[in-house]
Design brief:
Chain lengths: 695, 106
C-alpha cells in the first residue's frame, strides 16, 4: 500500500494542524482538546487553540515496546494500478506496438499546507504575539506524540468510502463523551453561530394615477412621383399668382385701405349681435322706471274736466332728449304712420348766425331714454317727412339746400339718396318736404320747397335722385310779369308746403312775405290763387284732415288763420299775442287744432265749442324756451311738441279737448269723416252767409 | 441625341425648380414645423442617395429634440396610414421626387 509516510510527530507540534486525510485530522484534534481542555479554555485564548488535535477515546493503547517497534514500509515509485501493457497503433509499421513509457504517478490528495517550522522566523513571531499560551501548547505537544503515533497505522486510508463510514461511527461517540466529561461547549472550526436581528419593515404603500393618453389622429396618404409632381406644379402656379396679386395690390393700395375700413366696420358687428336683446332690455328697464307715465298714458283721464266746463288740460308724459344733440333745437317732427309709437325729430338751428351740424333722431314712446336711430348730419335738418306706406323711408331737407332720403333699414349713418349741386340742389334752406304717392313707374317721389323760390319734385330712381322743377315762386304771382333781368332778384321765398288730401295735384305754398299760393302740379307758370295771409313769413300751412276746402296757416305775426281755399279771405283769425311757430289739425276732429308759440305755450282750439277762444292754453316748458313744432299722434290722444332746446315733450290731451259733439237722444251715434265734414261745414256756412250778405 | 439632351435639361430644370420643400400636410405648431422641415431638408441633402440614413438621422434628431418615439418614412413612392399623436405629424415633399413623412406615436 503506497500510503505516504508522514511524520506525525512533527505535525502535532504545530498549532494549526491539518493532516492529510480527514479522519486522522479529526481524531487528532479531538484527542488534543480532551487533554488540554482545562488549560486551553480560559479567556479568548480558546480561539487560538481552536484547531488543536483531539484524540478519539477508542484509540488503541500501545505499550512502549510496541511503540518503539519499527515498522518498515517501503515506498516505491511504481504505480500498482498502472497498466503494464499499453499498446498504441503505429501508422508507421501498421501494427499495434506496446509503449514502454507508463505513467506511474497517481495523485490521491493535494492540500496546501499551512504549517510553519518551529524555528522559523514566522513561527517565532507568531509565538511572540501569543505570549504565554506558548507554554501550554508546547506542553501539549510533548504528551501528544505518544498517543498519536500508533494512530496512523491503525487508521489507514484505503478509500474515501470507508473513511466516511468511520467518521459517522465516531461522531455520536465523541459527542457523548464530550457531554459526559464537560458541560462546556467545545469550539471547532465548523461551529458557527449566526446572530441576526430583524427590524420592523416600513409599511409599503402604493400610489398610482392614470392620465389620459395624448390625443391621436390617423393620417393616410399615398406618395408617388406623379402626386409629388402635381403638388409642385400647383405650388408653383400659386406662387406666380401671388406675385401677380402683389403687383396688383401695390397699385391698389388705396382700395385696400378702404377694404380695411370695411373690415373694421364689419368687425364692429360683434356688438350688434346683442343689439336686439339689449334694446329689448333697455325698453323693459325704461318701462319699469317710467311705469307711472305709461299708466297715465294709457288710463289717466283728468277727472277735473267735468268741473271745468269746456276747458281742458294737457298732461305732460315723457320728455325726449338726446345728449348728442345738445344745443340743437327741434326743427321738425313727424310721426311714423305705420308704427304709432315711433316719431322722427329733426334737429338743427333756425339761427342764421349759429349754423352747424344737425341731427336726425328717432324716438319710440316705449323708450324715452335713448333714440332708436341716430343720424348725424353736417347741416341743420329743417324739415322731414316719413313715407306713409314705406315707413322706413325718410325725406329730409337741410339748411344748406340739399335734400336727402334716409333708409332706416340700411345700416350706417349716411343717407341712401342725397342731392348735390349737380343734381338740382336748392341754393337756400329747404323748409318743407312732403312725400307724394308713387308716380306711374312706381318710383317714390317727394316735393320740397326752399327759400330760393323753387318747388322741386324729387324722384328716387335706382341710385339717383332725379329732380324736376315744378314751380318757381314770384312775388307777384306770375312769371310773365316784370322784366327778365329783375326776375332773379324778385323770386319769393317758400317756407311751407302742403298737398291737398284728396285732390292730388293741388298744393299750397307759404312764402316769406306772408302770402300763400295755391298751385297745381300741372301749371308751372302760374298760381291758381294767392292769399295775402300774413304780414310775416308763413310758418306753417296745412290742409284739414277731413274737410276738403279748409286749410290753416300760422305766422310769426301772432296770428293763426283758417281758410276756405275757394275764398281768398280768412274764415277765422286768431291772435295769440305771441309769434306762432307751428299749427296742426287734430286727426280725430275736423274742428280741433293746436298751435305752439315762442313763449312755450300750447294753444288748443275746438271751433265746435268755442269759435273765439282756445279751450286750453297751457305752458308746457319754461317761459324762455320757445316751442317750435307740434304734431298730433294719428291714433293716441297725445301730442308731441319740440322746443328750441332740443327737447321733445309728449302731452296727453284731457277728455275735454277731444270731446265728441253731443248727440241727440234717439239718434244713432254718427261717426266717420262725413260727420266731421258736416261739423265744419256748419261752422263755415254760419260765416259765409253774413259774408255773402255783406259782399 | 438632341431629344435626350432636352429631356435631361428638362429634368434638371424640374429638379432645380422643385428643390424647395413643400409641406403637404401638417398639424404641428409653427415653430416645430419650421424646425422639422429644416431638419428634413438637411438630412435629405446630406444623404442624397441613402434614404435610410436620412430617415435615421431625422428620427434620431427628432427623438432628441421632441422626445422619443418618432417615426420617419422617406421614399419616392409609398402609401401609408399611420396613427400619430396630434400636433406631431409632418408630411412633405422635397427635391421634386422625395416624400417625407414624420410622425410621433409612442
Amino acid at each position: 500500500m503506497p500510503v505516504p509516510n508522514i511524520n506525525v510527530r512533527k505535525a502535532s507540534t504545530v498549532h494549526k494542524v491539518s493532516l492529510p486525510g480527514a479522519k486522522s485530522t479529526k481524531a487528532a484534534s479531538k484527542k488534543k482538546d480532551e487533554d488540554e481542555g482545562v488549560d486551553a479554555h480560559d479567556g479568548w485564548d480558546e480561539w487560538a487553540h481552536g484547531k488543536a488535535l483531539i484524540k478519539p477515546p477508542d484509540q488503541v493503547e500501545l505499550t512502549e515496546a510496541e511503540l518503539k517497534e519499527e515498522v518498515t514500509r517501503v515506498l516505491t515509485a511504481n504505480n500498482p494500478h498502472a497498466p503494464q501493457n499499453i499498446v498504441r497503433y503505429s501508422f508507421k509499421e501498421r501494427s499495434f506496438k506496446p509503449t514502454s513509457v507508463v505513467d506511474q504517478m497517481a495523485v490521491l490528495f493535494v492540500l496546501e499546507g499551512s504549517l510553519l517550522h518551529q524555528d522559523s522566523d514566522e513561527a517565532r513571531g507568531l509565538r511572540a504575539k501569543e505570549g504565554r499560551t506558548e507554554e501550554t501548547v508546547t506542553a501539549g505537544t510533548e504528551a501528544e506524540p505518544d498517543e498519536e503515533k500508533p494512530e496512523t497505522p491503525a487508521t489507514p486510508i484505503e478509500d474515501g468510502g470507508e473513511a466516511e463510514e468511520a467518521e459517522e461511527e465516531d461522531r455520536p461517540d465523541s459527542a457523548a463523551s464530550k457531554t459526559g466529561k464537560k458541560e462546556l461547549k467545545v469550539t471547532n472550526q465548523f461551529n458557527f453561530s449566526e446572530r441576526a436581528s430583524q427590524t420592523l419593515n416600513n409599511p409599503l404603500r402604493q400610489r398610482s394615477c392614470q392620465t389620459e393618453p395624448p390625443p391621436r389622429n390617423n393620417f393616410s396618404a399615398t406618395a408617388n412621383q406623379w402626386e409629388i409632381y402635381d403638388a409642385y406644379m400647383e405650388e408653383l402656379q400659386k406662387q406666380e399668382k401671388n406675385k401677380e396679386k402683389q403687383k396688383a395690390t401695390q397699385s391698389k393700395s388705396v382700395e385696400k385701405s378702404k377694404k380695411k375700413m370695411l373690415l373694421m366696420e364689419t368687425q364692429n358687428d360683434d356688438a350688434s349681435k346683442v343689439r336686439k336683446s339689449s334694446k329689448i332690455f333697455e325698453r323693459m328697464v325704461s318701462q319699469n322706471i317710467y311705469d307711472d307715465i305709461a299708466q297715465d298714458f294709457q288710463y289717466f283721464e283728468d277727472a277735473s274736466d267735468e268741473h271745468r266746463g269746456q276747458e281742458g288740460t294737457l298732461l305732460c308724459l315723457w320728455d325726449f332728449h338726446y345728449d348728442g344733440a345738445k344745443r340743437l333745437s327741434v326743427t321738425a317732427l313727424c310721426w311714423n304712420k305705420k308704427y304709432q309709437d315711433l316719431f322722427a325729430v329733426g334737429m338743427g338751428s333756425y339761427n342764421f348766425t349759429k349754423q352747424g351740424r344737425g341731427m336726425l333722431v328717432f324716438y319710440s314712446l316705449k323708450n324715452s331714454a335713448y333714440p332708436e336711430y341716430i343720424y348725424p348730419t353736417d347741416s341743420s335738418v329743417l324739415c322731414l317727412d316719413i313715407h306713409e306706406q314705406h315707413s322706413h323711408l325718410v325725406a329730409v331737407g337741410f339748411y344748406d339746400g340739399s335734400v336727402a332720403v334716409y333708409n332706416l333699414k340700411e345700416a350706417g349713418p349716411e343717407p341712401v339718396y342725397k342731392s348735390t349741386a349737380k343734381t338740382g340742389k336748392h341754393t337756400d334752406p329747404v323748409w318743407q318736404v312732403r312725400w307724394q304717392s308713387d308716380d306711374m313707374d312706381n318710383n317714390h317721389n317727394f316735393y320740397s320747397v326752399s327759400s330760393d323760390g323753387r318747388v322741386v319734385s324729387w324722384t328716387l330712381i335706382k341710385n339717383e335722385l332725379v329732380f324736376t322743377d315744378i314751380i318757381t315762386l314770384l312775388p307777384n304771382g306770375a312769371i310773365s310779369e316784370g322784366p327778365e333781368d329783375s326776375q332773379q332778384a324778385s323770386t319769393a321765398c317758400g317756407t311751407s308746403l302742403d298737398f291737398h288730401k284728396q285732390i292730388d295735384f293741388l298744393f299750397l305754398v307759404g312764402t316769406e312775405e306772408g302770402k300763400i299760393h295755391k298751385c297745381s302740379k300741372s301749371y308751372s307758370s302760374q298760381f291758381l290763387e294767392t292769399y295775402v295771409a300774413h304780414s310775416w313769413p308763413v310758418d306753417a300751412v296745412k290742409w284739414n284732415h277731413f274737410h276738403p276746402k279748409v286749410f290753416i296757416s300760422c305766422s310769426s305775426d301772432w296770428t293763426v288763420k283758417i281758410w276756405d281755399h275757394t275764398i281768398n279771405t280768412p274764415m277765422f283769425t286768431f291772435d295769440l299775442n305771441v309769434a306762432v311757430c307751428d299749427v296742426a289739425w287734430s286727426p280725430y276732429s275736423s274742428t280741433v287744432f293746436a298751435a305752439v308759440t315762442t313763449d312755450g305755450t300750447v294753444h288748443v282750439f275746438d271751433l265746435n265749442i268755442n269759435k273765439y277762444e282756445p279751450i286750453c292754453v297751457q305752458q308746457v316748458v319754461a317761459k324762455k324756451t320757445a316751442l317750435t313744432h307740434i304734431e298730433f299722434n294719428p291714433i293716441y290722444p297725445i301730442i308731441i311738441v319740440g322746443d328750441d332746446q332740443g327737447c321733445v315733450t309728449s302731452l296727453k290731451l284731457s277728455p275735454n279737448l277731444r270731446k265728441k259733439p253731443k248727440t241727440k237722444k234717439g239718434q244713432d251715434l254718427p261717426k266717420g269723416p262725413e260727420v266731421e265734414i258736416a261739423k265744419m261745414e256748419k261752422l263755415l256756412s254760419l260765416l259765409r252767409e253774413p259774408e255773402q250778405s255783406t259782399g | 441625341m438632341a431629344g435626350t439632351a432636352e429631356v435631361k435639361k428638362e429634368e434638371a430644370d424640374y429638379k432645380r425648380m422643385h428643390s424647395f420643400p413643400l409641406i403637404r400636410h401638417t398639424d404641428m405648431p409653427e415653430e416645430m414645423r419650421v424646425e422639422t422641415m429644416e431638419l428634413c431638408v438637411t438630412a435629405c441633402e446630406k444623404f442624397a442617395t441613402n434614404n435610410e440614413s436620412a430617415a435615421k438621422m431625422i428620427k434620431e434628431s427628432m427623438d432628441k429634440k421632441f422626445g422619443s418615439s418618432w417615426h420617419v418614412v422617406i421614399g419616392e413612392g409609398f402609401g401609408f396610414e399611420v396613427t400619430h399623436e396630434v400636433k406631431n405629424l409632418l408630411y412633405m415633399f422635397f427635391g421634386g421626387s422625395l416624400a417625407v413623412c414624420v410622425w410621433k406615436c409612442s
